[in-house]
Design goal:
Elements lengths: L2 H13 L48 E8 L6 E8 L4 H12 L6 E5 L2 E2 L18 E7 L18 H4 L2 H15 L1 H17 L1
Parallel strand pairs: 1-5
Antiparallel strand pairs: 1-2, 3-4, 3-5
Organism: Choiromyces venosus 120613-1
Protein name: Ubiquitin-like domain-containing protein
Pfam families: Get5_C, Get5_N
Length: 199
C-alpha cells in the first residue's frame, strides 16, 4: 500500500464519522477489543521470627531500697521495710507504721534529711536511690499521737519530760524552718517556749 492510497482510505474513514461528539458520548464497551484482565501478583508472606526465650536474668528488676522508720524522740519506734519499691508513696509508709505502732495516721510526720515529706510523693521523688543499704526516715509523732501516760506522784504525766526537752524544740524548729523560713521559725519557737513555760 502506497502512502497515497493509505491517505485516501484514512480520509474516507474520517469523513464517514461525525465531526462533533456529543457531551454525553460514551463509547460502547461491546465494540472495544477484548482485553485480558490484569491481576496483581500475590505478595509473599513475611517469615515470622520466633522470639528468643526470656531467661529470668533478662527480666527487668524493680528498683528497691531498704527503708527504716525511726523516731526522733519520745517513744522508741524502729520499723524496718526491706526491699521497698521506689514507687511506694509516703502515705503508704504512714499506713504501715500506723498499723505496726498503733499510732493514728494523722499524727505521723515523716522527715528525710530534715524535710517533711508530702503524702503523695514517692520514694524516688524525694531523693531515695535504688540499691541503698539503708535509708533512715525520721518519724515525728505529733501531740496526742500516743497514749496518755499515767499520773505520777507529783501529778505530772510520766514521759512528759521527753516532750519538752531540747530535742523536741530542735525538731519543732527544723519543721518550722521548712514551712515558714528560718527567721519566722525562731520567733515562733520562742513564742511556743514562752507559752509552755507560763503553763
Amino acid at each position: 500500500m502506497t502512502e497515497l492510497s493509505f491517505t485516501k482510505k484514512f480520509l474516507s474513514t474520517l469523513s464517514s464519522r461525525s465531526i462533533r461528539v456529543n457531551a454525553d458520548f460514551c463509547e460502547d464497551a461491546r465494540k472495544l477489543p477484548a482485553r485480558t484482565p490484569y491481576t496483581l501478583p500475590k505478595t509473599a508472606k513475611p517469615k515470622s521470627k520466633k522470639a528468643p526465650p526470656v531467661s529470668p536474668s533478662d527480666t527487668p528488676s524493680i528498683p528497691t531500697a531498704n527503708i527504716t522508720l525511726r523516731s526522733l524522740r519520745g517513744t522508741t519506734i524502729i520499723h524496718s521495710l526491706p526491699a521497698t519499691p521506689l514507687s511506694t508513696t509516703i502515705i503508704s509508709l504512714k499506713h504501715q507504721l500506723s498499723t505496726a505502732a498503733k499510732i493514728p495516721i494523722d499524727k505521723i510526720k515523716l522527715l528525710l534529711k530534715g524535710k517533711v515529706l508530702g503524702d503523695l510523693k514517692t520514694l524516688e521523688e524525694v531523693g531515695v536511690k535504688a540499691g541503698e543499704e539503708e535509708v533512715v526516715v525520721s518519724v515525728m509523732v505529733m501531740g496526742g499521737g500516743k497514749e496518755e501516760g499515767k499520773k505520777g506522784e507529783e501529778g505530772k504525766e510520766e514521759g512528759g519530760q521527753a516532750v519538752v526537752d531540747e530535742a523536741f524544740w530542735g525538731d519543732l524548729k527544723g519543721w518550722l524552718d521548712s514551712r515558714v523560713g528560718k527567721e519566722l521559725a525562731v520567733e515562733m519557737v520562742g513564742v511556743f517556749r514562752g507559752g509552755w513555760g507560763a503553763k
